[in-house]
Model the fold of this input.
Amino acid sequence: MKSIVAEPGSSAADRAGSPSVAIVMYSVMLLSYALMAANRFLLPTMATNVRQEFGFTLAQTGLLTTIFTVGLGLGGLPTGYLLSRFSRKTVLLCGIAIFSSAVALTTRATGFWTLLLCLAVMGIGMAMEATVMFALAASYFYRSRAAAIGSVNFCYGLGGIAAPLVASWLLKTYGNWRSPMVMFGLAGYVMIVLIALVVRQWFSETKRATEARAVAGGAPSLMNRNTILLTIISLIYGLVLYGFLGMYVTFLREELKFTATTAGSVYSFFGAGALLSILGGWVGDKLSPKVVLTTAFLITALLGYAFVHAGDSVVLQRTLTFAYGVVGSAILYVNLAGYHVKAVESGLASRGSGMFVTSLYASSAAAGYLMGWFANQIGWVAAFGVQISLFSVVAAVLALALNPKEMAL
Done:
């Protein structure tokens, strides 16, 4: 495996600092991404408590757990445009301020619509940070793009592990769902100060991939076969992934009767699986997109069946959740993000990243609602069978139509 540590670049800006200093700054930015990821897991972890307080239906609760993805979907492409006008660091700091404020303001919600608005706005800030991080990783560590994006998603895994555990502990300690939201919201402002002090422009605004002669290929616009197919696949993937992430804890607590603490500990194993994201990205750099995506989606389809037939065994549910984290996050998420960037020329990296964010989260917003509606109408077994298993098979078939020869080397 090639190191994702950047080699000395040709630009004066990149020579202003050493790779070791760059890694330190990159680590600080990754920490902020871990916090952003943690915020995504907060409401799903406490969904039953919110539902009990406000009297929401199962479908309404499912919508709330994934509505932040509306903001993510709406914010992806506009963020790509903002990055052509403003520095990555500026866009990143604005994004953190937006999602942290929105998280804290959920504690002032008086009902369904105000809570829905806060969570949707939270997603806009998340889109800004996600687009910046993917573009930066693909640009600075251009020789191993998917592995570099894997390092970003590794921190998503850290957030996915920490949030359910910390949120469940705060929920038990303070007896209400608002305390975790306040704590995580305030943590965002700590990260703003840290990034402002530590991260320098020569790193955050690097253009290594554009300048590197070794990077060749990719389409000259977003209107190409691979990007169109990847966009459709990402739309389907959003329904599959966030149908699970939004409603799995509710399934554990209301169908299998797990306690909040036990359900949170099971849920955290998804984040543990995501910790293999760097390896997942490396696999994506080495193998054909057809092989990687088709195989991963077929495994996801099998896991969708296994979740609802595993019973109330905590060990088995943890094992399956970890496997889903590996396949669904460390492999599918990382490589879909990487392939969107590889599908276009280096100069379009930010827009390719924005297209991934927009396409994935455009459908994710409805994923929780759809899973809740399916569960209410046809039961949890059939709901998982349709939204996770069947949809994954469709995505696997579409992946076979990709043309890897037209992607960037």
Summary: The mean pLDDT is 82. Residues 19-54 form the longest helix (36 residues). Residues 17-406 form a domain with the Growth Hormone; Chain: A; fold (CATH 1.20.1250.20).
